[in-house]
Amino acid sequence: MSISDTAIKSAKPRADKPYKLPDEKGMYLYIHTNGSKYFRLDYRFAGKRKTLALGVYPETTLKEAREKREAARKLIMDGVDPNENKKAIKASKSESALNNFEVIAREWGAKHVNNWGDKNNRSKRMLEKNVFPWLGNKPIIDILPMDILSCLRRVEDRGTIETAHRTLQICGQVFRYAVATSRVDRDITPDLRGALPPAKGDHFAAITDPKQVAELLRAIDSYQGSLSAISALKLAPMVFVRPGELRAAEWEHIDFEAKEWRYFVTKTKTEHIVPLSNQAITILNELHPVTGHGRFIFSSERTPRGDRCMSENTLNAALKRLGYGKDIMTAHGFRAMARTILDEVLGFRPDFIEHQLAHAVRDANGRAYNRTSHLKERHKMMQSWADYLDSLKNGAKILEFKKIG
């Protein structure tokens, strides 16, 4: 006798023990004392009696349970144990999930990328924005060079070829990690060599002529925006750190008494100290009542709690609004501005400047200087630099490109 949908719906639990409502060909409905109803199939395989779970009612309908029963009976006829087949499929799906590109990429990042846990980590954001939406759920072994190229073309179409090259580099690192952990046989990214137009390199547009710098500083003073964006724009030429380091600056790293900003530089894997001029301290003091309750100095306007820093495009977008497109001046260009003028106009020692740029400066024996090298002199240099910028902005006589000793 077979059971019906009506019989299943009307079946009530028994307080003393579970019971069965039989269907055909070894299938039945198992009714638990708590009222739960399970479809099951009793069968024999290799001389042993076994039971296969077919689903829970009503998530699994009677029709679906019977279809699973017939599929199981066919496996038995073919000499395959349905329970073992079910386990194999489950293991295969689990293994496939563990070998998806996104799973491997996040595993690589957690082990090999500094500050990976930061939601604004550049490598992670590139993967999340440029790769994961299209390849994240795909087993890495099934990814072809053309799949990666399709992702890179989307980045290229946005006009950011340097980002496309960087994304390709990151994908290569993920693939090499997958090779090392036996998830894939080889790194396929070298197959894309030459597929992208050449990157322009690390030469960011910068203004280095003091007369033009004076005009830029006056334009910055006229910028209309959030206090966070205005403060970052004013501070950028004074401290000339990398834009990513500036926008991710944290209040806990500022020592107001010592007039220093101390943080870890991911690019060179070293700790760095930025002496803060009186002008820089003034800017920070004015901003503190607004963002001082949160983690980041220059917090995103979208997160009032201050647990997210401003966008990487904020400063360049502000410069563009002031009439300085990326072919004229970039946020990164403040570094070249300071390096050029501090050396060729104000005559500061190149090694002082290189230290302040957080470059990997070494002595004659090849040893890297520590973060406190020439700190006293760098404090003087940073104050002189801020004073010089003020003098340019206020219309003082501009020194030409000639060292003053």
Short description:
This protein folds into three domains: 5-94, Integrase, DNA-binding domain (Double Stranded RNA Binding Domain), CATH 3.30.160.390; 101-192, DNA polymerase, domain 1 (Orthogonal Bundle); 210-393, Intergrase catalytic core (hpI Integrase, Chain A). The protein has 16 helices and seven strands. The protein has helices at 5-10, 62-77, 82-98, 101-112, 122-130, 132-135, 145-157, 161-180, 210-221, 227-239, 243-247, 278-291, 314-321, 333-344, 350-356, 375-393; strands at 19-22, 27-31, 37-45, 48-57, 254-255, 260-265, 270-275.
How would you explain this protein's 3D organization?
Helix 4 packs across helix 8 (161-180). The chain has helices at 5-10, 62-77, 82-98, 101-112, 122-130, 132-135, 145-157, 161-180, 210-221, 227-239, 243-247, 278-291, 314-321, 333-344, 350-356, 375-393, and strands at 19-22, 27-31, 37-45, 48-57, 254-255, 260-265, 270-275. The protein is 46% helix and 10% strand. A hairpin with a 4-residue loop joins strand 5 and strand 6. It has three domains: 5-94, 2-Layer Sandwich (Double Stranded RNA Binding Domain), CATH 3.30.160.390; 101-192, Orthogonal Bundle (DNA polymerase, domain 1), CATH 1.10.150.130; 210-393, Intergrase catalytic core (hpI Integrase, Chain A, Orthogonal Bundle). Residues 364-368 and 401-405 have low confidence and may be disordered. With 405 residues, the chain is of the alpha+beta class. The termini are far apart. The longest helix has 20 residues, at 161-180.
